[in-house]
Amino acid sequence: MDPFSQLILAISVASFFTFQWLFHSVSPWVSTRVSDGFLRLSHKQRIEWNSRTVSTFHALVVGLFCLYILLFDDAVNEDPVWGDPTLVKINVGITTGYLISDLLLIFYYWKAIGDKFFVIHHLAALYAYYYVLGQGMLPYFANFRLLAEFSTPCVNQRWFFEVLGYPKSSKPNIANGVMMAAIFFLVRIAVMPVYYSRMYFVYGTEAFYRVSWGGRSAWMLSSFCLDIMNIMWMHKIARGCYKVLRSGRQRKAVTQENGKTE
């Protein structure tokens, strides 16, 4: 194993243990000091709270790193199939450690945070990332998928508001809901034409045929699988956002009507 591969392996292992430490130690310690509501949660809710706290931290770190690569890594942007994968491998290594850590927690605390869709999502991502880390192929596409992480903090914040008892019609909840729907759409749905157009232009080229059959199947199948789930989640988020906005308008209208009556 070459020194750089050893470094990526070390990063993945360190990432795994870091996220385990954040889940078991850091999140509970910080949460009890930041939010009084954390102490009133049930055991299952505290497990999910810690899981989502770690998820938010991972999303911010990896998402910002991903954005930096997309903006400044010319080698990857000019050659999306075989461009220099150094920075992408580091970012994917961090995510790989997180995904394995999260899978372990999902299975161990299945009654609290078990979700078959998350298991499928994690396994599909790990399958694709195996080829990125092992063979350095498709760095642009691997990194591009990580843009989706920018929607995670708002999704988690929605759950935090819910367990803390914030009314769905409250201003913080409505603001976060609208932001969540907008960001989710931008980084998971609106970017699909860009992603698949790059895939289309690469398809059939010499660089494409240098990718192994396993790498091609991992790239395409995982992309389709993840995007089908993204569309399903977008549908649920849009419906939820619409209901909250509608209830907020109705409540405002009733308040105004009562004010006129008085």
Structure overview:
It contains twelve helices and no strands. With 262 residues, the chain is mostly helical. The longest helix is centred in the last third of the chain and has 49 residues, at 213-261. The termini are far apart. The chain crosses the membrane at residues 6-23, 54-72, 92-110, 117-133, 174-196. Its main location: membrane. This is TLC domain-containing protein. One of its GO terms (cellular component) is endoplasmic reticulum. Residues 44-246 form the TLC domain.
Summarize the structure.
This protein has 262 residues and is an all-alpha fold.
Poorly predicted spans:
none
Query: How helix-rich are the residues, as a percent range?
Result: over 70%
Q: Please outline the major beta sheet.
A: none
Element string (H = helix, E = strand): HHHHHHHHHHHH
- Overall shape: it is globular
From the N-terminal CA to the C-terminal CA, the straight-line distance is 79 Å
The chain-level structural class is mainly alpha
Number of helices: 12
Round the Cα radius of gyration to an integer and report it. Answer: 21 Å
Count the beta strands.
Answer: 0
Approximately how much beta-strand content do the residues carry? under 5%
Q: What's the rounded overall pLDDT mean?
A: 90
Pfam family, one: TRAM_LAG1_CLN8
Domain TLC: 44-246
InterPro entries: TLC-dom, TLCD
Keywords: Membrane, Transmembrane, Transmembrane helix
